[in-house]
Design goal:
The protein is α+β, with helices and mostly antiparallel strands. Helices cover 24% and strands 26% of the residues. A hairpin with a 2-residue loop joins strand 2 (70-78) and strand 3.
Length: 98
Amino acid sequence: MKTKASCVAVCHAMLSHDKGMNSAFFLSIVTMDEIWMPMFNPETKWKSAQWTHTDSLPPKKFRVTVSAEKMMVAMFWDSEGMILTHCIPKSTTMMGET
């Protein structure tokens, strides 16, 4: 189990390592995170606008609901910004080695 003291010790070790490399250590780090994104792309008001005759009723608009379908998106970035965004195919298992 990680304690606050062990996290502080690791941070101090990384900072001292970086000091000896003129900030090259932190510039070389790439990190990753993943997020579940709903597969939902609503039409904007502007895109759904339609010309109608003054005597006619406006078109009926249905309420847009968020899809239950989701997609896992993995994002990778470094000190300069985003490197890669990758959509993970459905039913793919991601297991990291410990």
